[in-house]
């Protein structure tokens, strides 16, 4: 975890930002809960446990800064809530998501499934692709099993 904090610190420095204690507390929560897709309010409540003096506005500004610098990705799964997701280390693209429409679990696919699609877009539309988002909505394995048993 410490080397990832260091890396993020360097990324901030490269853009002339400092890793203030408030920003660090926010980054630590994101690292600790990397598998979760937390909203700004969720993150705020967790940061507050470590840094009680911190305000929601500060956490919000930090998250906006981190998403501008592409350290986190802001994502919306269609429930109207913005969630924040750490970009995987060294990842050139934003990982893909599988969202279950029944239980709401979110699974991640780190492998880039869209390389061929990107090439096609670049060739056919002369559009230089920098990133993409891909979310599949469907029914997870567990819910499929539960549905089968209920029938
Ligand atoms: Zn994710
Ligand atoms: Zn499910």
From TrEMBL:
GO MF, any single term = transcription cis-regulatory region binding
Has the keyword Repressor been applied to this entry?
yes
Cofactor: how and how many bound: Binds 1 zinc ion per subunit. Binds 1 Mn(2+) or Fe(2+) ion per subunit.
GO BP term (any one): regulation of secondary metabolite biosynthetic process
Residues that hold Fe cation according to the record: 115, 132
Annotated PANTHER family: FERRIC UPTAKE REGULATION PROTEIN (PTHR33202:SF7), ZINC UPTAKE REGULATION PROTEIN (PTHR33202)
The name of this protein is: Ferric uptake regulation protein
Q: What species was this sequence derived from?
A: Halolactibacillus halophilus
State the encoding gene. fur
């Amino acid at each position: 975890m410490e080397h990832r904090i260091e890396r993020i610190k360097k990324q901030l420095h490269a853009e002339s930002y400092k890793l203030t204690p408030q920003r660090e507390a926010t980054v630590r929560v994101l690292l600790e809960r990397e598998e979760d897709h937390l909203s700004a309010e969720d993150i705020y409540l967790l940061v507050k446990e470590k840094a009680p003096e911190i305000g929601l506005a500060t956490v919000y500004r930090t998250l906006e800064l981190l998403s501008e610098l592409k350290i986190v990705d802001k994502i919306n799964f269609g429930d109207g809530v913005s969630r924040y997701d750490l970009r995987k280390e060294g990842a050139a693209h934003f990982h893909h998501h599988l969202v279950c429409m029944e239980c709401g679990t979110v699974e991640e696919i780190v492998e880039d499934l869209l390389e061929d699609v990107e090439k096609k877009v670049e060739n056919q539309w002369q559009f230089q692709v920098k990133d993409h988002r891909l979310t599949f909505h469907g029914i997870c394995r567990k819910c499929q099993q539960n549905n089968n048993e209920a029938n």
